[in-house]
Amino acid sequence: MKKIVKILLSLVIISSINSCSNSNNVIEEVLNIESGAILRTLEVLSNTLNSSDNSSQFSVSVEEQDREDGALFQSVDIYASIKDLSPDNGTTVANDILVKTIDASTFSPGPHGLPRGVLSATFGETAAAMGLGANDHAPGDLFIYELRLNLTDGRVFGAAEAGSSVTGGFFDAPHRYNALILCSPEPGDYQVDMHDSYGDGWQTTTGAGGEGIQVTVDGTVIEVGMCSPYGGSNVGTFLDANGGTACTQNNGSDATAFVTIPVGAQEATWFFPGDTYGEIFFEVYAPNGDLAFASGGPGDTAGGLLPIAVCASN
């Protein structure tokens, strides 16, 4: 509590230095919280959705705060929109659709006496609410969820009412969350053809090597990458911490590795750590031999999640 008082005192000092006519300053936003309400994020429990499983869900743990310590809390509406990032199957537009309403009675007092609860929405009920069919979404698209807090006096607080002072930091109350749509992956051996235009193996996050491509299958990480062909400390540098088991020996320019996804896997994500010198490129082939991803030329792929999603046949 002392820390909060110090923060508010600091904000008062800052506001006294700045012009009093600035209606958007931080102290006014903080004071506005005292007459409004927020849903503070405690933990995002799940922000991926499996389009192959209607029961997969977005889920977040929150704490409700209002000027009467929860006495004004009535309910939370969960709204959803889709951000279509897969234009190959057309562009789907569905914005600001009510998915469900959760009553305040489902919350229980937390350690500070404020209402806490878990808010969730499944892929199936979200798609149904938006009227989406199987061809209206694809792996790589996003569902954007917004939480709107309803008070007993009729007021509503959502993302539009959350100022910059409450969307991050201590309050962490954005009221809006992204959920990535995935699918159950096709099981089998994925072939990863790796290349380095300079011919000295991969240097991803550091000049000494860095990490390899990481495939996370139901929480288990599989890593592949190219060793340096020159021996010494550079051999398998990015895998030393993992025992050096996944570094593929090669001629420095080309190598092939395989990632095996087992039958029954529910989720698989592919992550590329980066390319320090702009020399790396690679292709990934699905178990049936189809090209699942091609990075283009050297240096064309930025670090981050790769758009690789080969869905299992139903």
Give the structure's gist in a few sentences.
This protein is mainly beta and 314 residues long. The chain is built from four helices and 19 strands.
General shape: elongated
CATH T-level fold name of the largest domain: Immunoglobulin-like
Largest sheet: 6 strands, mixed
**Structural class label:** mainly beta
Low-confidence stretches: 1-33, 164-171, 232-245
Query: Number of helical runs?
Result: 4
Taken as a percent bin, the fraction of beta residues is 35-45%
Q: What is the number of strand segments? A: 19
Q: What is the radius of gyration?
A: 24 Å
Q: List the helices and strands in order.
A: HHEEEEEEEHEEHEEEEEEEEEE
From the N-terminal CA to the C-terminal CA, the straight-line distance is 54 Å
Name the helicity range. 10-25%
Mean pLDDT: 80
Structural domains: how many: 2
CATH architecture of the largest domain: Sandwich
Assign the CATH superfamily of the largest domain.
Answer: Immunoglobulins
CATH top-level class of the largest domain: Mainly Beta
Question: Mind explaining what this structure looks like?
Answer:
The structure is a single chain. By secondary structure, the chain is mostly beta strands. The protein folds into two domains: 37-182, Immunoglobulin-like; 188-306, no CATH class. 12% of the residues lie in helices and 38% in strands. Strands 2, 4, 5, 8, 9 and 10 form a six-stranded mixed beta sheet that branches. Strands 14-13-12-16-19 form a five-stranded mixed beta sheet, with no helix packed on it. A hairpin with a 4-residue loop joins β8 (142-151) and β9. It is elongated, with a radius of gyration of 24 Å. It starts with a helix and ends in an 8-residue tail after the last strand. Mean pLDDT is 80; it is low at 1-33, 164-171 and 232-245.
